[in-house]
């Protein structure tokens, strides 16, 4: 299209934070009425670039042109005035305010609230009808699901009459169904002529919804292509700078003896809510069991019980011996002693101490082992030497044991945790969200390490909210919903759609009554409706 | 206990509760904006001194009141610069201001008046009790008359101002744009910032309001409740006001109830000293400690959760 000016044109944007160059001479053109993807690894500078466009940061150099006019964007206010709205990765909502209060905040009409709220109510209703964005205007944000909170963020932007909408990693927190709904909303917005910038690190999303895509690598824009003229493999190569294996390369499992056996496990949390409602499963040596499920359906509790962090009732045996589930002997220390290693889901809070150095982090949990003691003191020299070796073997970059954990990227932090746990040669490895916030290059490495451990005949329990990851790594899949296992599947004989339905609580074997309902719901999903049967 | 005694106790409840109420509302504004304000005590103390000192020196009550408010504002702004502009620790800044106020007032008082850290008695240059219309006429009417004459009428103008501040605060907080933004900045400053509103400006506005209210509280102590400044005359009222703020769950009407309850405790303690309950004596110290004990009870969650504004105490830094 040559007849219209680009909705957004960035020319030569540069930005440094201290010595770190976050954006280097970046130029980009986005035509109106299109969805433009920006893809790149974590830390490539995508979010910085968009925060500059939204006036949250100021660029050191460069120009911003909106609809063919050079526009000075000095703060968020001027970005809003220029018709730009942004949905941040971490929502900027006031939790104990209602939806309508959040929407009008900063866009009130006059000094008094009543007329503003009345007006906002009306236009929220209109927007809801127009774009499938219905939210109860009087609901408090803290009572809404994450998907609905995101809708509020989009409504905020639309209420301010944004023509350009920036979304930063919008699907990271959504269930597959919520993500589909979001894409329908985005599609509607595009049809209305809005311009959308979608920042993501998920190749599938780029391929699914964008018209054009820019790739960022190491603070630079490496390419801009039409989505229809590219492929996931090509984009991945542009992102990482080398060829990347998108599928996990593994031979079929050869499971041996049962390592872990869980029977009728029940977990009640601090608030007295039953989180795990009597589940049973086995994991054999040389096998990866993946637990799929939307976050908060009991997977984390299962991990925590096995890792010795939470108490539970039921029976668990490890290599045939019973494992205590409450009391003094049910802590992380004694779990490690019987060969259970734990890579926690939240590595920054449970896996590492961010303010401590890498070498200190490589011994936590094992710091009482005799080999690290030297009389009453710790043998730090030995730990440091060992840490350097571990970091080498796990390709942690930079391989500097004296760097604090917080100074590593997400992927490299995860490698430090994995090195600590895997190198202890456990019989059972618990891995939670192994690649959350990890860039593609590191994902490949982490997956390979997990498969390598399996091939050595170890049992692995994988919990992940990424269905792709569950599908490609697991030898068997258990789907959890509302504290129960909905069923077991094998990756070769199932698909994401079936798992997605089980994650939503629809169970049953093919051919049964229940399964007919599933088929109906599948048809409904294809027609863009919400499943009615749960 | 006859009606008269009850009215007398309630009357002194109002007198003693008023400075607590003003300081509590001051704390409410600043904490609702996310600035923890432990310096209420210090601000009221400088205001008490300067209002008394200037009123005495100039003979003008209004100049005294103005000086009280201005001095309290100066401390507020120091707190603002330290904790908003330079993102310092709000507790430390507040505590430092309390120490500063405690030392500075006595030092200046000694230098100016040489009476051992106090101002000379103000004599007649102080806020007088107002007699509301019809008070005399209604006085003979049983029950209503004495209540109107003794309890409602006969306070200084500052008392009525303080009580008026309650509905005004409520209205500002919940019915105006400024109030919405103020509450938002105390809960999630990033939401305010991305909505294109200046976090710094909002927080400074809140702190300035707090300064004015503390100034009124201090001036009331020195020029209405008493006639002059004495060393440490706030006597921990700033901390009791903070306790009342927690007790009130950061809400204006609850703040009125909480401060009047604490005022009542003080009034009872003042009037009866050691209370004899049929052989069992409640010592006066217990009555004085009761506000703090009640606050602990609240904080321990016995009377429902007290959820402070979520961004309280955190300096706002744009994430990087």
TrEMBL record, chain A:
Pfam families registered for this protein in UniProt: ABC_tran
Alphabetized GO MF terms: ATP binding; ATP hydrolysis activity
Main location: membrane
Source domain of life: Bacteria
Record's bilayer topology term: Peripheral membrane protein
Keywords linked to the UniProt accession: ATP-binding, Cell membrane, Membrane, Nucleotide-binding, Repeat, Sugar transport, Translocase, Transport
Residue ranges annotated for the ABC transporter domain, each copy included: 8-243, 260-507
Compartments in which it is found: Cell membrane
GO cellular component term, pick one: plasma membrane
UniProt family annotation: Belongs to the ABC transporter superfamily.
Name of the protein described by the UniProt record: ATP-binding cassette domain-containing protein
Native source organism of the sequence: Pseudooceanicola spongiae
Automatic annotation (TrEMBL), chain B:
GO cellular component: plasma membrane
Transmembrane among keywords: yes
Molecular-function GO term, any one: transmembrane transporter activity
Membrane topology: Multi-pass membrane protein
Top-level taxon of origin: Bacteria
Keywords for this protein: Cell membrane, Membrane, Transmembrane, Transmembrane helix
Residue ranges of the TM segments: 12-30, 42-59, 91-113, 157-174, 206-229, 253-272, 284-306
Subcellular location: Cell membrane
InterPro entries: ABC_transp_permease (IPR001851)
A Pfam family that the UniProt record links to this protein: BPD_transp_2
Signal peptide location: none
Protein name: ABC transporter permease
Organism from which the protein derives: Pseudooceanicola spongiae
Lineage: Bacteria, Pseudomonadati, Pseudomonadota, Alphaproteobacteria, Rhodobacterales
